[in-house]
Specification:
There is one protein chain. The chain has about 160 residues and is an all-alpha fold. It contains five helices and two strands. Strands 1-2 form a two-stranded antiparallel sheet. Strand 1 and strand 2 form a beta hairpin. Helix 1 packs antiparallel against helix 2.
């Protein structure tokens, strides 16, 4: 059975932003057009899916943590990336670093140890400047300790609470 051909025009979301509509597996790897992928994981508390416009920073952190806990680091990365793009200048590197930590977990889950280590290190570097005054209850010290571990293990807690 042949898959349907890729669309000619770029896929767009409801706001007109480019969004790839190719189905994806649980780790964010694109599948062929017409393949059965996993749908976005909804966060019951926030009622929103990964890739939707960010709510408050607390909402984004809660949604990302829920996705990390569910073994869906790729989608957690998308939530954190949306927050990064919407963040004020003073917080952009924090959100960028958090997104990179989630991408590192994605690479680890895919078996790419080298890529995982590089992204976790890069993410840690981006959040390190917030250690003394972490906004939104982000556990910067805990995340840095997690990132420095030889084998970081299970997904970290993003916040102190």
């Amino acid at each position: 059975m042949s898959a349907e051909p890729p669309p000619r025009d770029r896929d767009r979301d409801a706001q007109g932003r480019p969004r790839n509509a190719r189905p994806r597996d649980a780790l964010g790897r694109p599948l062929g057009y017409g393949a059965q992928g996993v749908g976005p994981a909804a966060d019951d508390a926030a009622g929103a899916a990964a890739g939707s416009p960010p709510g408050t920073p607390a909402d984004s952190l809660r949604r990302a943590q829920s996705l990390l806990d569910a073994g869906r680091p790729f989608e957690a990365h998308e939530v954190l990336e949306d927050a990064w793009k919407a963040a004020p200048d003073a917080e952009r590197e924090l959100w960028r670093g958090l997104a990179q930590l989630a991408v590192g977990l994605t690479h680890a889950a895919r078996g790419n140890r080298t890529g995982a280590a590089a992204l976790i290190s890069r993410g840690a570097g981006n959040i390190a400047g917030y250690r003394d005054r972490p906004p939104h209850g982000v556990d910067v010290a805990g995340l840095l300790a997690w990132a420095a571990a030889t084998d970081p293990g299970p997904p970290p807690r993003l916040t102190l609470s």
